[in-house]
Q: What sequence folds into this?
RNA sequence: GGGAGUGUUCCCGAGCGGCCAAAGGGGGCAGACUGUAAAUCUGUUGUCUGACGACUACGGUGGUUCGAAUCCACCCGCUCCCA
């Protein structure tokens, strides 16, 4: 099976500028392609998964990915799909973020021997001269046409600032730059990037009279149409400090039935034949598929060892009972005890299980807290050092959240 | 530049000068039911307090008033109409 077929069968491809040509190129040539990333946070999150996976697929097939960090464009902000104007970031923040991205990406891509490279568009965007840019790039864009683009529609209703309006020009210029300097023939991106990609292709055509190519992939959404990887506490991060491997594992383990197969196809490397088999599973059988999904993804991001730990921790917790090996842990200090006692409400706040004491009280009142498998029913309950069996106790919030407190 | 609006708690959105920590919805959290799923039902959802209550909040700054999210002035942001 060719990469192209693989991508297609996994349902990753949304749109292409030249389906036949692209298919043939991917089969017979070594294509240099790029995907742009905004460096708005200091870690990649689940929303970036698709990009990484697609790049990885293509790299394995002998193509050369360019990761373009938007160190320049981030200062402008992509208006696509945004309701509000993006917060401005300082250069120092952007540089820091870019560095973090680079580290995390090395899990997915092989950067040795220039098999993949990382570039920063700030390197060529920042030195640009306004007049020159307008004359060389700006002339090729029709405002009428841009306004008609789907991605500006919602923003047109709420207001779109000039700086954001220019984002498309900058991204198009990136493509032109990479085309001319890095031999980059193709740009990929989420389907929401279609208009921006087309912009680059047209710019290349007008400037060089040559043809470049574009392909977008399906956005990873839940069956309900929501973006994957957003929890109410924010994004699910790939950085183990921001989202622990266990939490990361649990995020996928708890995914909706309807979404498992799709996720396996789109963002794991599990062979299609295996996935096909799972697609027939129903009801609780799907739990096995979810476990697989969670394991594969955790392995991809945090390595096999961490994935194994997370899996075992989860199985122990939800199966036979407490095994506290790999649970998130908080150390309780001597100073935390008053007269040898520590209020459970304070304990909950200290472990981060409750954001405030009021919330902690509520949790107890509603029967959501258990310590070492005993439900806590009294708001005023205390724990003493003696309650820490062998120096630790397991605090359980709700049904799924476990936390270990140690002395 | 002129005119008309508008800014409320995580989000949307209601809000009479006191009865407003603020309706309603969404979301979140917890409970029941389950398969660590979905749907459904129940409770809950500013901080501190065991509780009474105290404190901080309605774009910002001042003011009127015994008392302001609600009235006034100025400022800032956004939307719309005219230029």
A:
């Amino acid at each position: 099976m060719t990469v192209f077929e693989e991508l297609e069968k996994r349902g990753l491809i949304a749109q292409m500028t030249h389906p036949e040509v692209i298919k043939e190129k991917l089969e017979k040539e070594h294509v240099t392609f790029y995907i742009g990333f905004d460096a708005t946070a200091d870690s990649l999150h689940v929303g970036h998964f698709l990009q990484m996976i697609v790049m990885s697929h293509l790299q394995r097939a002998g193509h050369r990915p360019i990761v373009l960090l938007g160190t320049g464009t981030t200062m402008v902000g992509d208006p696509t799909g945004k309701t509000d104007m993006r917060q401005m970031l300082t250069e120092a923040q952007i540089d820091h973020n870019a560095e973090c991205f680079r580290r995390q990406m090395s899990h997915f891509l092989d950067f040795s021997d220039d098999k993949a490279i990382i570039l920063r568009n700030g390197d060529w965007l920042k030195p640009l001269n306004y007049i020159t840019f307008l004359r060389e790039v700006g002339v090729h864009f029709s405002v009428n046409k841009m306004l008609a683009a789907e991605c500006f529609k919602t923003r047109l209703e709420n207001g779109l600032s000039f700086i954001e309006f220019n984002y498309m020009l900058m991204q198009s210029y990136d493509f032109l730059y990479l085309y001319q300097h890095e031999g980059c023939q193709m740009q990929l991106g989420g389907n929401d990037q279609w208009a921006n990609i087309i912009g680059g292709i047209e710019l290349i055509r007008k400037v060089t009279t040559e043809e470049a190519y574009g392909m977008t992939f399906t956005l990873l959404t839940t069956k309900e149409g929501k973006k994957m990887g957003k929890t109410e506490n924010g994004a699910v991060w790939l950085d183990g400090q921001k989202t622990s491997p266990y939490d990361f594992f649990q995020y996928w383990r708890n995914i909706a039935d309807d979404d498992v197969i799709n996720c396996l196809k789109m963002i794991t490397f599990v062979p299609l034949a295996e996935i096909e088999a799972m697609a027939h599973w129903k009801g609780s059988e799907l739990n096995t598929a979810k476990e697989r999904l969670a394991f594969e993804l955790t392995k991809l991001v945090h390595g096999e060892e961490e994935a194994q730990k997370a899996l075992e921790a989860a199985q122990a917790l939800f199966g036979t009972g407490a095994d506290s090996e790999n649970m998130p842990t908080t150390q309780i200090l001597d100073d935390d005890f008053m007269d040898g006692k520590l209020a459970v409400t304070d304990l909950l706040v200290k472990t981060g299980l409750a954001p405030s004491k009021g919330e902690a009280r509520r949790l107890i009142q509603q029967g959501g807290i258990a310590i070492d498998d005993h439900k806590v029913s009294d708001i005023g309950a205390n724990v003493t050092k003696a309650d820490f069996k062998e120096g630790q106790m397991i605090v359980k919030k709700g049904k799924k959240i476990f936390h270990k407190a140690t002395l």
